[in-house]
Design a protein that fits this description.
The protein is of the alpha+beta class. Helix content is about 25%, strand content about 25%.
Length: about 190
Amino acid sequence: MAKIGSGIVVTGLTASALAVVTMLALQAKSSATAATAAGPRAGTVASGPAKPGKGGRGANAPVAVPGDSGTGRRVVYSLGQRRVWLVDPSSKTAAPSFPVQASAVSPPLGSYAVNGGKAAPHPGSDGVEIENSVLFTMHDGVEIGFSSAVDGSMASPDPSKHTGGIRESIADGKEMYAFASQGTPVVVIA
């Protein structure tokens, strides 16, 4: 019986490993090509290129209004999607929709109404200078509403602070403030 040298064994194992990696790479490339050719999966929303000058919308506009969000003229806020829709059934265009930065204190799911706000710059509950605030509820002693940071930032809130500011881009904040007058329904969904 002939002995096989350790160099031959290592070479054989290396060649086998390279063959397996090459096969997996070809399968992955084939799957990616097939998925691209098939287009978006059912239930997903295709997005176009980023649109400069549209506030926080970027590549995410338009996005369909969730079906479980009520009826009539309203603001819809999805906690899970971190997204807002300004729904006006009388409009001939798609509802404006944009991403938001969730607050440290989230409102419970349900229906509310705009109960206040302020266009002029003023300090937010986290100490950041904000404008175009639209308030709609209190939860755990914290006032909750939409606003834009004057400096345009949309940083994640400090979880140690008990704050209720849901942040929007400056452009989206202006649009929200113009749309959501006193009494406008706000529907919070999962």
